[in-house]
């Protein structure tokens, strides 16, 4: 069961961040303050899906992987720490700050700087989670991905 849910949680986390990222870029290119505020609020609600799915992907991964010294698992564990720290220290605080500013109609320079930080941190987490998905499929040899190719 946990083996079946581990990749589902990971892929849900990836798709959630991807949808936050794409909707942010689209709505901010459009520049309509009400739409930006709506997306920022939706992202805050989306955290209710993202946070548990990342937490589950990580916790289940550590559990299935045990203490294995397999290089792919060593890399997945290390990456997971960055993903979690990036989420807790950067992404969640940015999402809350941006929603509050957008809700109040304040789109100043600070908003833009924090928005840029959020997009960069989001892209980093997408890349890290994406690599863990690829490595996961290498471990289970799904989709013909071989463990030897890096
Ligand atoms: C957000 C982070 C992670 C994502 C997105 C992710 C994703 C995946 C995916 C897609 C698979 C393939 C499953 C399959 O083909 O059935 C997998 C397998 C696996 N992952 Fe992760 N994973 C993550 C974190 C971790 C962590 C931190 C560990 C701990 C070392 C881990 C350990 C494993 C193991 C052992 C497997 C093989 C499972 C099996 O044999 O059925 N994963 N992972």
Write up what this structure looks like.
The chain is mainly alpha-helical and 150 residues long. The two termini are 28 Å apart. α2 runs antiparallel to α3 (71-103). The protein has a single domain, classed as Four Helix Bundle (Hemerythrin (Met), subunit A) (Up-down Bundle). The longest helix is centred in the first third of the chain and has 33 residues, at 33-65. The model has no long low-confidence stretch (mean pLDDT 95). It has helices at 2-30, 33-65, 71-103, 109-140. Bound molecules: protoporphyrin IX containing FE. Protoporphyrin IX containing FE (HEM) is lined by residues 3, 6-7, 10, 13, 54, 57-58, 61-62, 64-65, 73, 76-77, 80, 83, 129, 132-133, 136-137, 139-140, 142.
Question: Number of helical runs?
Answer: 4
| Cα shape | elongated
Q: How does CATH name the architecture?
A: Up-down Bundle
Distance between the termini: 28 Å
How are helices and strands ordered from N to C?
HHHH
Describe the structure using short key phrases.
binds protoporphyrin IX containing FE, 150 residues, 4 helices, single chain, mainly alpha, Four Helix Bundle (Hemerythrin (Met), subunit A)
């Amino acid at each position: 069961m946990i083996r079946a849910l581990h990749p589902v949680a990971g892929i849900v986390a990836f798709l959630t961040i991807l949808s936050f990222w794409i909707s942010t870029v689209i709505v901010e290119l459009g520049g309509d303050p009400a739409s930006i505020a709506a997306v920022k609020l939706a992202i805050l609600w989306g955290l209710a899906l993202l946070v548990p799915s990342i937490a589950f992907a990580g916790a289940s991964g550590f559990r299935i992987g045990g203490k294995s010294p397999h290089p792919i698992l060593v890399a997945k564990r290390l990456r997971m720490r960055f993903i979690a720290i990036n989420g807790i220290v950067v992404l969640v605080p940015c999402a809350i700050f941006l929603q509050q500013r957008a809700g109040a109609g304040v789109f100043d320079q600070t908003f833009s700087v924090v928005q840029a930080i959020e997009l960069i941190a989001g892209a980093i987490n997408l890349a890290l989670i994406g690599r863990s998905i690829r490595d996961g499929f290498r471990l289970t040899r799904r989709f013909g991905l071989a463990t030897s190719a890096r």
